[in-house]
UniProtKB/TrEMBL annotation:
Pfam families on file: FUR
SUPFAM superfamilies, A to Z: Winged helix' DNA-binding domain
Single biological process term from Gene Ontology: regulation of secondary metabolite biosynthetic process
Protein name: Ferric uptake regulation protein
Amino acid sequence: MNIELLVSKAKQVCDNRGARFTPIREKVFRLLATKQGGVGAYDLLEELKLTESSAKPATVYRALDFLAELGFIHKIESTNSFMLCHHFDHIHPVQLLICDSCGHVQELHSTAISHELNNLSAEKGFKVKAQTIEAHGLCEKCQQ
């Protein structure tokens, strides 16, 4: 998807929610928009320092917290990295296919998986508040 279109959409979401899409938040968003897989916070920091020499780890973590809170990004817990969500204009179930060879991450949105997890959880008396399911393996390219 076009990065400018994503940025415009993100700014609109922020405006609708009364949130500030500061220049630093936008820069971190743009960096993530150029990536195919998960990116670590310190890798983002190094790239951010190219234009923001005074950037510190807290700068990046605050921006990532904001972007996650608004649903613009997903945190990949198993690799402690982050990726842009191209479907942030609506709440959706998330399943991530993570290639252990090249690092590519593909996002799925299966409501069937989401419903099954919620149903099984409810049977155990558990209420799911949020779910991101991560599956590790090899992408099609790396299997060849």
